[in-house]
Each structure stands twice: as C-alpha cells, then as structure tokens.
C-alpha cells in the first residue's frame, strides 16, 4: 500500500517540491518569506503551508491588492483571545459573532474571522457555500480547536438543570446570543433536534453579545442558564453540562495566511505554554489545530 506523503518536508525535499535550489530555500527562510519551523536545530517545512505559499504567489501582483487591516473579527473564543494578546500578534479584536465576522471578511475589513457556524441541515461546520463565502476563490480555513458547548449554570446548579428539556421549566430564564452568533444558531438546532418549541422558553431581557457576557449574565443572576463554551463557564466559576462538540475555525484570504500577525499567532499556538493554557481553560481538543480544512 502506498504511504501517505509526509506532512513536513526537509530542506532538500522542500527544494525539490518547489523546483528551487537548496540555497534559494535557505535565502527565503533567512528573509522570512517561506513558512517553516525549526525542530532541534533542523528546518522543517509544513507541506500544507508550502502549498498555500505557492498558490498565494500565483495569484497576481501583490502591490495591486487592497491593504487588509490587522483585525480578528467573528466569534469570541477565550483561548484565542488570550493567544492574540500573549503572542504579540498585534491583531485587533473585533468579536461581534460569527455572522459579523463573515461580513467583515467579505468586505475586506478583517484579516481573519473566527467561525463556529453549524449547518442546520447537514450538521457540518463552517461550510463556505452555506455561509456566502463560496465565491471567495482565495478562501482558506484553518482549524483552531474543537470546543465543548453546553449549559452554563449557577455554581452548584441549584435548580438541578441537567438537559435541554429543563430550559422550558417554569421559573427558568435562558440567556441567549444575538441572531447571527454561532451559539444562537446551535441553540436553535439543538432545540429542533429535541422537538422543542423556542417559544416555550423564557428568555433573558437582552441578548448577550459574547461568550463572556452570557456567562456573566448567569453569574449575576440575570438568567438561570445559557448555552456557551466550557471555558467561559470556568472563567466565571459556573457549573457546566456538556451537550455538543463543535469546530471553531479561522477563515482568511490565502495571502493573509503569510502576514506577520497571523504567522506569529499560529507559531505561538504550537508552543507548550499555549497547550498548558488550553488545558487550564478546559473544553478544548487541539488535535487538529493548524490543519487547513478548506483551501479554495
């Protein structure tokens, strides 16, 4: 049986793959022009990143492209938010929900967008054609993490809420997100799967505009329960009932993948300090972090 190609290439293999001389590859590394990692003093070149790098150089004159601001839009994620700061990426955060991130990416007002939008029909996540991104011929999606979504509850769960059906009980106010947020779409999908009518829920007075806002709403007693990520529950000392595993991806244009803010963020995410933080926050599976899940 034919072996799968190696995910990482040596310098000689990268030179052969790109049809360049090894000296030219070393020059590109020294200039910071080509994606690579250094492991115990040895250079290794991620095959997926080389493919993206090559395609980005085949897409025309760099000078003719509009300058995209160094903004990370879309959904808030506690681990991503921390990594943006700690990595020195110099990305500005503008997290108003996944739907807002899609619009800003299309308009060229954001370099990346964090997305976790489930498709109600297929159950898949972040499907470009279903999000209105199918026309972006240079769209790339990079897996950030799998996250646990579930019910955020007051400490010690005094009402004994253990399943989605409990949200319809009398006296239970439900914190919720804005209409185009990924968590709000997921809530509607989960309710539909359980055959529950959303009209039966008693909703909080106002929508929560971020994961942390929703957790704080429960913490302060403005609602008894809300759907959100485990990391947000832990940050506010809340109880958590796991319901669903979801994919959280970073969407960007191919050329943006090689911009210094993005490369600094992804390089930091490969380090041990990042893994330790993810473990401390809770609710993350990083086994696919950095994998290119879509390359138009």
Describe the structure concisely for a colleague.
This protein is α/β, with parallel strands linked by helices.
What does this structure look like?
- There is one protein chain.
- Helices cover 33% and strands 23% of the residues.
- It has eleven helices and 13 strands.
- The chain is of the alpha/beta class and 296 residues long.
- The protein has three domains: 8-56, Arc Repressor Mutant, subunit A, CATH 1.10.10; 66-145 and 247-295, D-Maltodextrin-Binding Protein, domain 2 (3-Layer(aba) Sandwich); 149-245, Periplasmic binding protein-like II (D-Maltodextrin-Binding Protein, domain 2, 3-Layer(aba) Sandwich), CATH 3.40.190.10.
- The model has no long low-confidence stretch (mean pLDDT 90).
Global structural class: alpha/beta
CATH class of the largest domain: Alpha Beta
The H-and-E topology, N to C, reads as EHHEEHEHEHEHEEHEHEHEHHEE
Using DSSP, what is the number of strands?
13
Shape: elongated
Gyration radius over CA = 21 Å
Classify the helix fraction into a percent range. Answer: 25-40%
In the predicted model, the low-confidence regions spanning at least 5 consecutive residues are: none
CATH topology of the largest domain: D-Maltodextrin-Binding Protein, domain 2
Q: Per CATH, which architecture of the largest domain?
A: 3-Layer(aba) Sandwich
Distance between the termini: 29 Å
Put simply, the count of helices is 11
How is the biggest beta sheet arranged?
A: 10 strands, mixed
- Our estimate of the beta-strand percent is 15-25%
Total of domains:
3
Average pLDDT rating: 90
């Amino acid at each position: 049986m034919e072996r799968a190609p190696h995910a990482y290439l040596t310098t000689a293999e990268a030179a052969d793959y790109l049809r360049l001389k090894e000296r030219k590859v070393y020059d590109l590394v020294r200039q910071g022009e080509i994606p690579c990692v250094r492991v115990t003093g040895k250079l290794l070149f991620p095959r997926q990143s080389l493919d993206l790098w090559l395609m980005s150089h085949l897409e025309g004159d760099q000078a003719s492209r509009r300058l995209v601001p160094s903004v990370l839009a879309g959904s808030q994620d506690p681990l991503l938010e921390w990594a943006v700061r700690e990595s020195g990426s110099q990305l500005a955060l503008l997290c108003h929900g996944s739907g807002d991130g899609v619009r800003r990416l299309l308009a060229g007002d954001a370099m990346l967008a964090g997305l976790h939008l489930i498709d109600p029909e297929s159950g898949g996540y972040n499907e470009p054609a279903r999000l209105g991104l199918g026309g972006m011929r240079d769209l790339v999606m990079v897996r950030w993490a799998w996250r646990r979504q579930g019910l955020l509850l007051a400490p010690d769960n005094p009402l004994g809420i253990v399943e989605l059906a409990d949200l319809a009980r009398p006296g239970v106010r439900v914190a919720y997100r804005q209409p185009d947020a990924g968590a709000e779409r997921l809530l509607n999908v989960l309710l539909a799967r359980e055959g529950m009518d959303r009209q039966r829920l008693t909703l909080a007075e106002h929508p929560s505009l971020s994961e942390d806002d929703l957790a704080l709403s429960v913490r302060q007693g403005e609602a008894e329960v809300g759907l959100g990520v485990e990391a947000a529950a832990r940050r506010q000392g809340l109880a958590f009932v796991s319901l669903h595993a979801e994919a959280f991806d970073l969407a960007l244009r191919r050329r943006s993948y090689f911009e210094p803010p993005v490369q600094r963020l992804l390089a930091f995410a490969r380090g041990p300090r990042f893994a330790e933080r993810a473990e401390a926050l809770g609710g993350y599976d990083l086994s696919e972090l950095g994998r290119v899940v879509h390359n138009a």
